[in-house]
Fold this sequence. Notes:
With 409 residues, the chain is an alpha+beta fold. The chain is 37% helix and 34% strand. It has a 6-stranded antiparallel β-barrel with strand order 3-12-15-14-13-16. Strands 4-11-9-6 form a 4-stranded antiparallel sheet, with no helix packed on it. The protein has a 4-stranded antiparallel sheet with strand order 8-7-5-10.
Amino acid sequence: xxxQFLLAALLASSLLACSAEPEAVASSPxxxxxxxxxxxxxxxxxxxxxxxxxxxxxxxxxxAGTDANVVAEASGRVLKIVKRAGETVNAxxxxxxxxxxxxxxxxxxxxxxxxxxxxxxxxxERQNPEDLRSAQLRVxxxxxxxxxxxxxxxxxxxxxxxxxxxxxxxxNAKSALRTAQTEQDAAVAALARVTxxxxxxxxxxxIAVAQxxxxxxxxxxxxxxASVKAPFAGEIAELFVETGEFAAAGTRVLRLVDPSSLRLxxxxxxxxxxxxxxxxxxxxVFKGRSIAAKVSQDARVPSENRLVRLRGRILPNQxxxxxGIGTAARxxxxxxxxxxxxxxxxxxRADGQNYFVYLVKNNIAGRAAVRVLAESTGRVAVTGIxxxxxxxxxxxxxxxxxxxxxxxx
Length: 409
């Protein structure tokens, strides 16, 4: 009986508790909580203006800036080789001697002919004044005779009118006058002939002497040309003849170079050649040394492999020890590809053929279109955004325009 009463009491208590619970909930209403905004954590960099440069290297060969093939100026057998390949010579120094016996014999004959012409000229110079004096004396004498004949004829003419002389005497005086006049004319003509002959004869002798002198000078030059001399100071790179061989005039007999005028020869792609102008700096790397140089000739003719051949010159006061003609070394140069806003290449995203970056402003990521000017080794130069802009880098894969971001360091 007691057990049944206890169960009934417990059941009544449970029913009372269940009926009271809704009233408690209704009496205390729930408060709304604020919704949290989801932000993407990003890192950023500041865009900077600058020049995008790249360094490149090629192989360069050293050649002589002064390099000449020396030719024989006369024909003949090689009589003697004075200097060999690899030896240095001074300007004007004899390198090899050609046989010149025939020319030497002709030179001796020409000297004898010159001496003979000079003797004939001196003889003519002595003879002509004597002939000239004789002709002048004859003219002077004939003039005196003519004056006397004129006086006698005039006196006889006067006496004849007075009956002092006969007609025969008068005619004789007139005949003497005509004879004196004829003699004077002949003396004057003879003087003119002697004067002209003296002048022409001396001139002819002088011409003969000048011709003989020219012949001697020509043969002397031929003898000198038989000696092949160095046109400038340098080093003999090659000899193309040996003792006893015949060398014709105009054929090359040796190659001479000037080691002090080393030049760099190298090839670069055509695009690089457009940027490497005359005077552009170069660096020759040889045995751990960096040797300053510059472009000396910006040729624009591409070779068969589409590379452009350029030349460079080593700057003064450089350590060129060990460098020589034919030496190969690494040549480095720096190119300025473009000027603009510099960014890492990974900061850019592609949209078809267009590129853009994400800029952060007021904790919002916005998309900004850019134009790529140049790219090199993970960096790009662009336009389209200002220097100082805050650029997202690296770019999260899921980042979208307009996304709220939180900048982290």
